[in-house]
Design brief:
CATH topology: MetI-like fold
Order of helices and strands: HHHHHHHHHH
Number of strands: 0
Mean pLDDT: 86
Structural class: mainly alpha
CATH superfamily: MetI-like
Number of domains: 1
CATH class: Mainly Alpha
Strand content: under 5%
Low-confidence stretches: none
Length: about 230
Amino acid sequence: MESSGPFGLALQLIWQADPALVEIVVLSLRVTGTALLIAAAIGLPLGAVLGIARFWGRGAIIVVWSALMGLPPVVAGLVVYLLLSRSGPLGGLGLLFTPTAMIIAQTALILPIVVSLTRQVVEDLWQRYADQLRSLGSSSWRAVPTLLWDGRLTLVTVLLAGFGRASAEVGAVLIVGGNIAGHTRTMTTAIALETSRGALALALALGIILLALTLVLNALAHLASRLDRSHIG
């Protein structure tokens, strides 16, 4: 496959499944996918509880989680760095500049999105079906799994939004991962590095893959939204 110029070389790298390219993409998907699973395991039930429960201080908690949705990635990275550094409370674990540190940072970015949007989805469903569920003998706490299942298509969109934010993030993973070749180099950090070095072929190849991933995520979110509307209808 003959080509010339950075764009042609980028397509060639993708076509030939360049080992360095594949390694970066696989690590990126593994880190972001793991962070998403952790955020979902924590955020879905927590968001559901906030959507149903009524207690003093609930409004303030909701405001805090909503504010954290706009948390700058570099701030999240800095906080995780301070926690995992040698002088930090978790420094003894030796996690700094490892994929685990990047997973923690990305989980911190995804979790507020999952909690806040899940809370809104479940609260809306609870207002709609509370009387019906109570008539069937279901308490508010026992209704949580039912409401999560009923809102599953919308929640898929929520999780895709979280995945999209984390996969496109640079600052936090650069701070806690260090962008170490073959160890903590992700698509976004590699694009930044290769562009600054003038190695545009690899940067373009990663950019094409990242753009394709973004398009796939948006297509899936659109499909889930349409299915949800048809389900409600």
